[in-house]
Amino acid sequence: MSIEQIKPTRMALLQLKKRIMLAQKGHELLKKKRDSLVMQFFDLVSERKTLRSKAHEQLEEAYASLMEAQMLVGKRELENLSLAIPVTAEFDVRVYNIMGVVVPLFNLRGKIKRPYTTRGYTLINTSAKVDEVVDSFQTLTRTLFDLAEVEEQVRLVAEELESTKRRVNALEYVLIPKLRSTFKWIEQSLEEREREDFFRLKRMKNVLKG
Amino acid sequence: MRTAVIGDEDMVTGFGLIGIKDRYVVLPDRAAAEKVFHEVTSDKNVGIIIISHGVSALIRDLINRTNETKKILPVIIEVPDKGESAAFDPFEDLIKKAVGVSL
What's the pLDDT at A179? Predict the structure, then answer.
């Protein structure tokens, strides 16, 4: 129902009143949603920040030990070793709902950190440096899983936050003022009509008397 | 669900050593990066994509589009390249856009 098509009648006035109340209620609710999303968002952002810097530190460590191992064992040899290692880092996905935002959570199947005996290469023929590399990359991957979860949440909550903000503003600055001004216009038209009727009555009375 | 790694040789070797099998070396070719990225994102069993900044910078538009259109998975996570400064942060713009200030 576009506002321009409304006729200035009492019926329309009542309907409009209902619509304004509904819009205000919706606006109120959306504002609450926005505020709580903002709070969620700030929590997530600070969590992400700690995880990020942790991941970056671990990444640097991992690369450093990888480089040492490459110098000691050789690039080819390391790559060959990696082919022998059984698959890890498999996981299941669950979903979780933050204020209507569906985010994924990762559930690792088994541990990423594995004891030396089950890593898939022999300890006899390899350098201890290799163990170090594996260790550091295991730690790193664990952190990256957590980081992936949190970053995805940040991204999704940010999207939801933006669309909620847009809806709040649309209601506050476009729809509600439009409805209000239409309400006023109908009121004024009705008053005007009343005055006209009143004046007509007076006039008729005068004509009849005179 | 599996994890995929896209990056340079060293990164791929490192993650290979802990038992990640979906590994792709693509630097520094955009066409190759695109092809690998398509392949990985269309695989329903890949849940997490670890991608190095060097590669993600090449296909930034593709990554953004995937993030906008995907349902829930895959989650793409960017990590800095070897020797890159820790100041690298792919989320800065996003946070700025969402709250109006950078944190």
Answer: 92
Whether residue A9 lies inside any domain: the answer is: no
Residues of A in contact with B20 (CB under 8 A): 87-89, 141
> Based on the structure, what is the number of domains in chain A?
1
CA dihedral A30, A31, A36, A38 (to 10 degrees): 110
Classify domain B2-99 at the CATH superfamily level: ATPase, V1 complex, subunit F (3.40.50.10580)
Q: Extract the tokens encoding A161.
A: 């936050």
Asked, for residue A210, whether it belongs to a domain, the answer is no
Count of alpha carbons within 13 angstroms of residue A35, beta-carbon side = 6
Does residue A127 sit within a domain? yes
> What is the average pLDDT across A110-120?
69
> Which structural domain, as residue segments, surrounds residue A23?
17-189
For A125-165, how does the pLDDT look when each residue is reduced to its tens digit (9 = 90+)?
677 778 888 888 888 888 888 888 898 888 888 888 888 99
CATH classification at residue A161: 1.10.287.3240
Contact A154 B95 (CB under 8 A): yes
Is A70 part of any domain?
yes
pLDDT at A195 over 80: yes
**What one-character DSSP code corresponds to residue A4?**
G
Q: Is B66 on the interface with A (CB under 8 A)?
A: no
User: Which residues, other chains included, contact A181 with Cβ-Cβ below 8 Å and sequence gap of 6+?
Assistant: none
The rounded distance, in Å, linking the Cα atoms of A113 and A58 is: 14
Taking CB atoms and an 8 Å limit, are A93 and B14 in contact across chains? no
Predicted confidence (pLDDT) per residue in B1-56, tens digit: 888 888 888 888 888 888 887 888 876 778 888 888 888 888 888 888 888 888 88
Q: Where are the domains of chain B?
A: 2-99
Mutate to test the interface with A, among B1, B6, B17 (most CBs of A within 10 A): B17
